[in-house]
Specification:
Two copies of one chain form a homodimer. The first copy, chain A, is α/β, with parallel strands linked by helices. Chain A contains 13 helices and 13 strands. The longest helix of chain A has 21 residues, at about 260-280.
Chain lengths: ~375, ~375
């Protein structure tokens, strides 16, 4: 564990060998070493994403990946069902709006998940929808949508499915091809044991078909240019080479651990987090049935502001908790438990939180 | 010097302390450490760019920065004068085209520079042009446009000036405010002793005024969101934190050396490169009056393919030269001499090239 215990839902702490990997000398991103490194990363990502679809890497944050998903498959005026259960669902929606999509909203109260039946009903009410935007794991509330049941309804209705899996992929069960996800987006600083700077997308055959007629403008994020360049072993624009080094090492560690064990580890640390917080008398924000295995939202001790409380924990114990977004700011704080995280990190986090509880709260 | 002598015009080699800086533990990009780091980087960039304008950092390649320059200041249908002297001038133009600009072309043969008088004439012929797109340093041919005289004509005509200074800024004389550059774009992997992954833009008051009415769609690259987040000490989306670490150290080294000395060093290594290549009997591609101080394009020895020759130099001496783009591929090769580069790197490069010359060429 590093000196600071960084318990936010990204950037996540890095394994020492990943930090070390970034010291490598720069290479030509049009040369054979880069081509091999990128190919190995993509092969490993396909295992963790459970896909045979194209997987492309963009030099961008996850939000850039969301924009790429939208602009490469849609045209202005296309009707889109936007399923939002929080702040990041809103962001995905706003991107589609900015580029001229005609938005049909399905809004679920914060803390709850969207269900397949609700999505099916929304699609029956708006049969001319072309695509559905869904957040797999809502980082702002710590809720994981039941993507498999949602995807089943979207595919039964014959719609294109675009999924923000930024903070879920690699950490929680997710079967891109079996479930029918057409475009999946994730980012290097979440489950992948790497620093921020790269977004990854998978594109199904249906997504490529949509790309062929998509009229929302795109250049930097043009996935066709990315696919062509990848075929040649490179990227269309100069990539974040040092982040590739880190990701390559992160993927090596993940492959060595094995997908099943990585998912099981996330289940264990999430259970430990939730049980530990509840045992202190703290109240969790998310519906327990859909509580996220990568991030937990929790109310501060009664009478305290969440941001004051987490600053106190940082000052006293060097444990960095995350604030909340939008109208939850100050009302809840969040504990990240994804990527390079083990039981000891969570135990130390719980100790720090417990030590700062006011005496009124039963410990 | 590192074991491989990477002589391409980006990614450029990294100083050891920059490589070391990337090992730092991840931090919260919404916390005070990040805010201070970003503020210090921006202050140093303002010195090197000679500007009091806003300077914003994007997690993207330089091409993403070019897209940001276009979509934040223009609307579909706006008439734009696109001055192109090569491959990257074409790219800047294509971005504007993709987003619906009405392009007026000023094309200069490869190897030559655009002159102020030519730009003035083009503006007289198309008085309803709103903005002018210019490449300061055309990396594909090794030509530096006389930006000061071009800018004088653009500003005299009252047009917005968008400049691709990706491979010039920080290396060659460039006075953003004094010359009247409204939007300047550069990238971390060029003159800044850092790896790729970040693009920087400066935005003048006129550029912000144009932003207020610009209708080309943008979200990830929305500079207003970036400015707001920077005011709060952060970025709107998770930034490439490890590249920030590297850039912060690169800027520290550049500030310690001093802007005048950095520019003088680039002049010296460029002179050394050009004189050394000519002394071997090799022919340079660029008009000598406008030869770039950051990259030199050169014809291979007579009868040889440029790519075969540079592969031979790499194999025998571990000196990596760059190929050429577009219709110059195979016809010329390029020597990068920007960023962390000193006389010894160039001497070793010249030795390697000389050793591979066929006997027919006088040495």
């Amino acid at each position: 564990m590093s000196e600071v215990n960084l318990r936010i839902p990204g950037p996540t702490p890095l394994p020492p060998s990943v930090q070390e990997a970034m010291r490598r000398d720069m290479i030509n991103h049009r040369g054979p070493e880069f081509a091999q490194m990128q190919a190995e990363i993509v092969e490993a990502l396909k295992v963790f994403l459970q896909t045979q679809n194209d997987v492309l890497l963009l030099t961008a944050s996850g939000t850039g990946g969301l924009e790429a998903a939208v602009v490469n498959t849609l045209s202005p005026g296309d009707k889109v069902l936007s399923v939002s259960i929080g702040y990041f669902g809103e962001r995905f929606r706003t991107i589609a709006q900015v580029y001229g999509a005609d938005i049909v909203k399905l809004d679920i109260p914060q803390g709850q998940a969207a269900r397949g039946a609700q999505v099916a009903e929304a699609l029956r009410a708006a049969p001319d929808v072309k695509a559905v935007l869904v957040t797999h794991n809502e980082t702002s509330t710590g809720v994981t949508n039941p993507l498999q049941e949602i995807a089943a309804e979207v595919k039964a209705a014959g719609k294109l499915l675009l999924v923000d899996a930024i903070s879920s992929a690699g950490c929680v069960p997710l079967e891109t091809d079996a479930w029918g996800v057409d475009v999946l987006v994730t980012g290097s600083q979440k489950g992948w044991m790497a620093p921020p700077g790269l977004a990854f997308l998978s594109m199904s055959r249906e997504a490529w078909a949509a790309h062929a007629t998509a009229k929302m403008p795109h250049f930097y994020f043009d996935l066709k240019r990315h696919k062509k360049a990848m075929t040649e072993g490179s990227t269309p624009w100069t990539p974040a080479v040092s982040v590739y080094y880190a990701l390559h090492e992160g993927m090596r560690l993940l492959m060595a651990e094995g997908r099943e064990k990585v998912l099981a580890r996330h289940q264990r640390v999430a259970d430990l987090t939730r049980e530990g917080l509840k045992a202190m008398g703290l109240r969790l924000f998310a519906d327990p049935q859909f509580a996220s295995n990568t991030v937990t939202s929790v109310y501060p001790p009664a009478g305290l502001n969440a941001d004051d409380f987490r600053r106190q924990v940082k000052k006293a114990h060097n444990v960095v908790l995350a604030g909340a977004q939008g109208d939850l700011a100050g009302k809840v704080f969040r504990v990240g438990h994804l990527g390079y995280v083990h039981e000891a990190d969570i135990a130390a986090t719980l100790d720090a939180i417990r030590a700062e509880l006011p005496l009124a709260v039963p410990a």
